[in-house]
From TrEMBL:
Residues 1-21 form the signal peptide. SUPFAM superfamilies: FMN-linked oxidoreductases. Keywords: Flavoprotein, FMN, NADP, Signal. The gene is LOC107421475. The keyword Flavoprotein applies. Residues 43-376 form the NADH:flavin oxidoreductase/NADH oxidase N-terminal domain. Its cofactor is FMN. InterPro entries: Aldolase_TIM, OxRdtase_FMN_N, Oye-like. The keyword Signal applies. Belongs to the NADH:flavin oxidoreductase/NADH oxidase family. This is 12-oxophytodienoate reductase 2-like.
Length: 402
């Protein structure tokens, strides 16, 4: 998740369409037009993602919503995810903790206990019932935590013992305090990797179609990858190869557990979220894209270089194209896309699929709206992370009801 301030980045319109009842003839005509339009809309062309037949390329990006009380997914998530499901559409779940040391924000879901696995099942079933494909994003925050979230009030764990500075929360008022982390000993690292392996197994048990390993946005994997954070002197620190070792061993473990065809990973080499920038993001991104080929994973999901800080689109000349070319599997791009940018990226073969965060959060029927080129609901940042089971969660209107 993003624990900081968001500014309005993508262009959203507050206007909503007028509804007019169509005759049967008009409906047929409209259907024909829509089919023709879909043919010419790159985002709405089908795509074969490994064993999954996607009917379009508009992906629900992972979005932390902080409505999983006590780290247990709640029944209100059934409606939330099923609202955002389309037949043949891919959804990626909100970041989901792999263990009791993985949490750093209130009311975020986990997948390390039987109770959590059982609680995910009806949510996954609802997505499947509407023909969706659902991946679980598995997560460990590392040092982006404080002792209140940790078992026995212990210090959060990380690649480093360098603390994070306090940060303004999403509401723009409160400050998040972070407890200085404890640097993991080399012999503890296999245990953390094993937590990801078990979480992946649990995700499959819950019925998910696969997992996305959260290697982005300054959380534990990124804390190993990035040279401004990772100051280790063992085989997990120093050279580029060493800094990537944790991520790659973790990928290997998850692949061994559930199969490469069910594994994706998310990276943000260019970003500097949670004080986790890198001095050479191009080399880091390219090295990871090449190294991941060894494991034959399903997809690589990368955040665009223009998203340096949360919610702020920067002018940027870096591109993900070298990573996209170097990686043999499917590629998902995310960050600051609107309809036109998404269509362009697919049309120019810069990516296979586009993940939408804030636009999908506020528009449960986003693929339909893109198909019709309909106006979009505006997202409300103030309700991104509140615990309300309805407000800002399942009450964004559909086109028909607007
Ligand atoms: C409310 C909110 C929660 C988010 N939670 C996550 C998350 O759990 N995991 C993750 O990888 N990214 C998370 N992100 C980042 C989004 O997945 C996405 O990369 C970001 O919003 C940029 O895409 P957009 O411009 O389409 O919104 C979150 C973003 C928002 C706005």
């Amino acid at each position: 998740m993003w624990g900081s301030i968001f500014s309005c980045a993508a262009c959203c319109l507050a206007f909503l369409p007028k509804i007019h009842k169509l005759s049967e003839e008009e409906k047929e005509e409209e259907n024909d037009t829509q089919i023709k339009m879909a043919d010419s809309i790159p985002l709405l062309t089908p795509y074969k993602l490994g064993n999954f037949n996607l009917s379009h390329r508009i992906i629900l990006a992972p979005l932390t919503r902080q409505r999983s009380y006590g780290n247990v997914p709640q029944p209100h998530a059934i409606l939330y995810y099923s609202q955002r499901t389309s037949k043949g559409g891919l959804l990626i779940s909100e970041a989901t903790g792999v263990s009791n040391t993985a949490q750093g924000y209130p009311e975020t879901p986990g997948i390390w206990t039987k109770e959590q696995v059982e609680a995910w099942k009806p949510i996954v079933d609802a997505v499947h019932a509407k023909g969706g494909i659902f991946f679980c994003q598995i997560w460990h925050v590392g040092r982006v935590s404080n002792s209140d979230f940790q078992p026995n009030g212990q210090a959060p764990i990380s690649s480093t013992d360098k603390p994070l500075k306090p940060q303004i929360r999403a509401n723009g008022i409160d400050e998040a305090e972070f407890t200085p982390p404890r640097r993991l000993r080399t012999d503890e690292i296999p245990g953390i990797i094993n937590d990801f392996r078990l979480a992946a197994r649990n995700a499959m048990e819950a019925g998910f179609d696969g997992v996305e390993i959260h290697g982005a946005n300054g959380y534990i994997i990124d804390q190993f990858l990035k040279d401004t954070v990772n100051d280790r002197t063992d085989e997990y620190g120093g050279s580029l190869e060493n800094r990537c070792r944790f991520a790659l061993e973790l990928v290997e473990a998850v692949v061994d557990e559930i199969g490469a065809d069910k594994v994706g990973i998310r990276l943000s080499p260019f970003a500097d979220f949670m004080e986790s920038g890198d001095s050479n993001p191009k080399a880091l991104g390219l090295h990871m894209a090449q190294a991941l080929n060894k494991y034959g994973i399903l997809y690589l999901h990368v955040i665009e270089p223009r998203m340096k800080t949360p919610g702020e689109i920067c002018e940027c000349y870096d591109t993900l194209v070298p990573m996209r070319k170097a990686f043999n599997g499917s590629f998902i791009s995310a960050g600051g896309f609107n309809r036109d940018l998404g269509n362009k990226a697919v049309a120019e073969n810069d990516t296979d699929l586009v993940a939408y965060g804030r636009l999908f959060l506020a528009n449960p029927d986003l693929p339909k709206r893109f198909e019709l080129n309909a106006p979009l609901n505006k997202y409300n940042r103030a309700t991104f992370y509140i615990p309300d089971p309805v407000l800002g969660y399942t009450d964004y209107p559909f086109l028909e009801s607007a």
